[in-house]
Structures
1.
Amino acid sequence: MWKPSERLMETIRHYASFPATGVSLRQMVQFGDRPSTGTLFRASQFLSEELPIRLAHRVQDLGELPDGLSEMPSIKKVQDWYAQSFEEIITLPRPSLTQEVRNRLLRPGRMNGGSPSKILSEATQNPSIREGQYRSSTTANGTINGNGKPPAVAAAGRRYFVPADGNVDWPPELNDYNQRFSRTLQQIKRRHDSVVTTVAQGILEWKRERQRMQIDSTIQSFLDRFYMSRIGIRMLIGQHIALTEQTHVKHPNYVGIICTKTNVRDIALEAIENARFVCEDYYGLFEAPKVQLVCKDDLNFMYVPGHLSHMLFETLKNSLRAVVEQHGADRDQFPVTKVIVAEGKEDITIKITDEGGGIPRSAIPLVWTYMYTTVEQTPSLDPDFDKSDFKAPMAGFGYGLPISRLYARYFGGDLKLISMEGYGTDVYLHLNRLSSSSEPLQ
Ligand SMILES: Nc1ncnc2c1ncn2[C@@H]1O[C@H](COP(=O)(O)OP(=O)(O)OP(=O)(O)O)[C@@H](O)[C@H]1O
Ligand SMILES: [Mg+2]
């Protein structure tokens, strides 16, 4: 099994002293429309600095957990994955370029083929989070301490991708490097597929060994930070892989994995169907409780469809479960759950209203903690059963709501829950349309 060397750990510590650079959805889209070889190369350069910084923070965080949690085998395993991915990126050989090509790479390019170059719009403070809410508590002061090689550019001055001039031929080495970089990212993405389940496994190991019933606020905020960072890393990696592929074929409404015309109604209908299917399966129902959708046909906005599906599917599963358990699985008629989509200038808000009996007020803060669930027996946590997320089963991990809220907040939205105990629950999913807010990482 792969283990990090002491030297590598030292380099990781050094990288972890730099803060991550947050990127906004808008910046990713502005940059990414049909990137040239030169532009992709610059993006690779940005990522080959930014990803190691983010990975290094995670390695450190995982090593500094309280109460012996860092020592749990599954936590160690995940820490090694992060360290190994860090190493793969920083050791990837770079092409040697002529001075002429270097100069050309530095020349400001044109954005979106033709319009004169402009600097990407500034990312704004994410409205859904307190300053520094997901920041890691490392020595993030950005000083270069002389250990290892410092990242090439000072973090404060680093911008997200800057397009390079697209209308010229680039030497083949550049394209080769882009392909290699993208393949490395694919390998890393795959390695980290089961991180969520493996970390959850680590927490279970710790609970068992230390006889802990609940996770305290230090661990809760570690998990929030850790999973938020994971969403960001996977976004950057997924986006870059998709952009590299889209230099050949491109879907008109897609920039990488971002859909500039995400149709809310289509995604909601699909999530409803999937959640009802899982519900029927789980409770052995002939027909799951009905869900009514109120949404304009042509409501489109810029978003990552996968994120929206995830949040809707999770909240709908919760509602359907509550409805069935409140009224009894032997019923043949259930109250209808309503999904109402409102379009504002600033937000698109989706309200999911159920008559599932609500949640006692004292339990509301708990629903946002990891592993809080009212399912009696947590389903088995085999990290291989579902590679990417806790998606398949109806309920039972206590991850559905906290992770969905991270997805919402990642692009400046939020997830809120108001309950009437004895009657039902309203979940509000706010999605920020302005898409200028920065990832909540710094
Ligand atoms: N709409 C709802 N009505 C009533 N209770 C709810 C509702 N949504 C969530 N809950 C309560 O909050 C708990 C946590 O929800 P969460 O989605 O985070 O985890 P889960 O559904 O138990 O497991 P999973 O990780 O598989 O989603 C649930 O177990 C349930 O008790
Ligand atoms: Mg759930």
2.
Amino acid sequence: MRRSLRGSCTEQKGAAMGSRSVIVDNEAWSAICGERAEARHHLIFGNGKRDLAEEDGIWLPLTNDEHTTGELIRRVHDNPMAESLSKIAGQLAWESEYYRKAAQLAEFSARRAFRLRYGKSYL
Ligand SMILES: [Zn+2]
């Protein structure tokens, strides 16, 4: 695992991994473009919260460009709107996982229900 100089959450695929993502079914591919993932973006980050997000599986696989190295408008970090949406999505994911565990539902059972209602999953 490595951290960028900006303190964001970059981890190369193939390196030692921590938690599984509670958000995506397949961690090998970017949740945004579908290309091979190169980094983990922890949806909640800053002030030591990244480690909690890792522990809770609140992260998405992204390409490096989507994460930190692409044009500002195409990446999450240093893009205020994307960072805010990331944290909103992270909280929603955490809350969803909290209730899934409390109700003892199968992993991704809400995903299946969403697919039935909306015809597809965006994750
Ligand atoms: Zn990140």
